[in-house]
Amino acid sequence: MAAQAGVGADRAFGSISVPIYATAIYRYEAFGKHRGFDYSRSENPTRQAAEQAIADLEGGKKAAAFSSGMAAISAVMTLFRSGDHILCSDDLYGGTYRLFEQILRPYGLAFDYTDMGNPGQVAKKIGKKTRAVFVETPTNPLMKIADIREVARIARNKGILSVVDNTFMSPFLQRPLALGADVVVHSATKFLGGHNDLIGGAVITTDPELGERMHFAQKAVGAVLSPFDSWLLLRGIKTLAVRVARAQQSAEVIAAFLAAQPFVRKVFYPGLSGHHRRDLHCSQADGPGAIISFELSRESAVPIFLNALQTVLLAESLGGVESLITHPSTMTHADIPLEEQAAVGLTPLLIRLSVGIENPDDLVADIAQALRRAKGRS
Ligand code: PLP
User: Fold this and answer.
1) Cα(342)–Cα(330) distance, rounded to whole angstroms?
2) How far is the CA of 285 from the centre of ligand 1 (A)?
């Protein structure tokens, strides 16, 4: 399905690669009559093809593509009103936390954070004003696991929405809509795009009315994915399965290597037997994925380790063909106050590795030499 993303979308000439419709507007056939396209903020054929591909992969009916993952999450938030309460995973991408706390809370939305792997606690924290649960699983960066089926079931029974950020797994490994979730969001910048060459996001749903509301958010708010980025996204999606499978295979090797290093204090990876919710993760996903977080033994070793890496690149993102490494506390999650980072267990010792598709021997050798240096010099 991924390899043939977009095939059949070009009805004019049958081109296999979807054309980049670099147009803002479409000529009306006559007064009050157009061919389904009037203005590219509302509809664009290249974007439509990318949206259809993502909807199909996630098992949804409708997808809406946005100019970033944050724009996609913002679009979902337009469903709520001042006074509404949203219950979230207690470890979230820092930008999502920043949107909730610094932009939306001042508009009167309330957010609470809880362990989504504990359904009893989730049910208790849903109050009269709660309108949605917002879940990451595995979470960024601590790889905590939510129970998608149970959380979605509780939400449905209470008449509220369940939203799952599926960025870390991609639809190749996890399909939350089939597990009962109402809405899936993505940073398409990550595994879907896969080449660190675009910023994009998507919202996918099985409910036609919700799908319409997301389409309305595209048109009314305007943060849509451009035709060129839609084309890049389609092109990236074609290799989703082989990229994720290869990266995951290498990640399993690297996680085992890290777990055997005395200088590595902890490894957070749902593929390791030591991960406390490994069984839960395996019951809802087809593999552990390609993201590994780990802690070094000494804080002073962290910058030495990161600077010593040569093949693995120090950069903020994840899910691309290149292996990337990040220090969440000062980079991706820097906008979360330090005391809140500490409260969820995010320490300055933590490092997040996104495994790419390079030769795994090269990656292990690079990490091993950087660990030796860090251990010797810190
Ligand atoms: N959700 C998760 C889990 C992420 O890791 C990110 C970005 O790192 C986002 C959402 C935001 O996506 P974007 O950077 O495309 O706006």
Assistant:
1) 13
2) 20
For the question of residue 375 being annotated catalytic, the response is: no
Cα distances (angstroms) measured from residue 148 to each of 144, 167, 256: 12, 14, 27
| Residues 279-313: tens digit of each pLDDT | 999 999 999 999 999 999 999 999 999 999 999 99
Q: Is 96 in the pocket of ligand 1 (CB under 6 A)?
A: yes
Q: How far is the CA of 360 from the centre of ligand 1 (A)?
A: 26
Ligand 1: residue of 144, 167, 233, 293 to mutate (most ligand atoms within 8 A of CB) is 167
pTM for this entry: 0.98
Give the H/E segment covering residue 185: strand 183-187
Contact in structure between 70 and 201 (CB atoms under 8 Å) = yes
Give the tens place of pLDDT for each residue, 21-54.
999 999 999 999 999 999 999 999 999 999 999 9
190 classed as catalytic:
yes
User: Which residue has tokens 């708010």?
Assistant: 221
Domains of the chain and any CATH numbers: 45-237 (3.40.640.10), 240-377 (3.90.1150.10)
Q: Is 182 in the pocket of ligand 1 (CB under 6 A)?
A: no
